[in-house]
Amino acid sequence: MSRSRLTVVLSQAPGKHPAKRALEESIVAALLFEPDLEVSVVPNLYDLGPDHTGRLFLDGVAGDMVVISWLYPRAAFWLLDRDGIKGHMGESQMKPPADEDDDAGEGETDTPVDKPEAIGAAGTIPDRHIYCLDLRDSNKHETFVAEVKRIAAECKDRRAAKAREKAANSPAIIQLGLSATKPDLPTEQKAFAPEALLAPAGRRWYPVIDYSRCTNCLECLDFCLFGVYGVDSLERILVENQDQCKKGCPACSRVCPQQAIIFPEYKSAAIAGADTGAVGGLKIDLSRLFGGDVGDALSAAVAERDRELVNDGRAAVGATVGIPKRQTSKPAGPKDDLDKLVDDLDNLGL
After folding, report:
1. What gap in Å lies between CA 145 and CA 289, rounded to an integer?
2. What class has domain 6-97+124-166?
3. CA-to-CA distance for 219 and 256, rounded, in angstroms?
4. pLDDT digits 0-9 by tens, 170-219
């Protein structure tokens, strides 16, 4: 696949919703006529397993890439990163529709807050950009086609600027019978037939970590009792056993202090990866936590975890296990509601 052409990958919606399929087909049909684009279609990005042809195709893309899916851009980007498809996040000029009336009580806030430094993506980041577009941002295929063309021009300009810089910084090579520069040859790559790319993928459910927010506090590891999380050789949090996650349960996302855990297909925008502000604090009422209405993030998480434990034939544990603690390295300061909750639990001997 030549690096001189921009790769565009459209990820289909699960199911066969006619309006969604019509939008997908209109976008692909329009882009196929663009000479500077390589256009492919894969099933729902979130469902692709490591051996699926669609994943293998994505693994083989070396240059800049546009991914168009029914996921929030932040969710799609970190989902790709989790699968080893890395790059720098490209900035789209598409704007989402007016603010959604998101579910209340999810713990999110739009107020900017001071955040600890995130640990960032692991490994070497390739010198390429990945742009993620959300198909929910417009019902007109022309909007997406125009944005892809703009991105293609931006990538072309960036490649040209890099080539000029490389030429300016490289010593001239003069040798009889040889060119002064060696052209970049496209890497040999297996051709993927459309029917292979679109092989059905089973539905999946698992968390995705946004390492641009994650501070490696390991609160998710303590809270989850299903063995989903682990740490790598550098003690960095990772989703180790994704298929042990309980379908529909977003409990660990609610206890993450930086909103770094994404469930891309959850109904709440904050948990599904909308670019909301990080959590600044949780409104905790101890009486509600121990028997009142579920109305705050932590009590909702505890209830969700207990439900899945019971479904597994295990005993519910309530708020006695894995309640989030403050990081030991955090400077001392006024206690917030979560700190007071932990103190109250300690005083109760729980």
Report:
1. 49
2. alpha beta
3. 7
4. 665 544 443 334 344 344 455 566 666 777 788 999 999 999 999 999 99
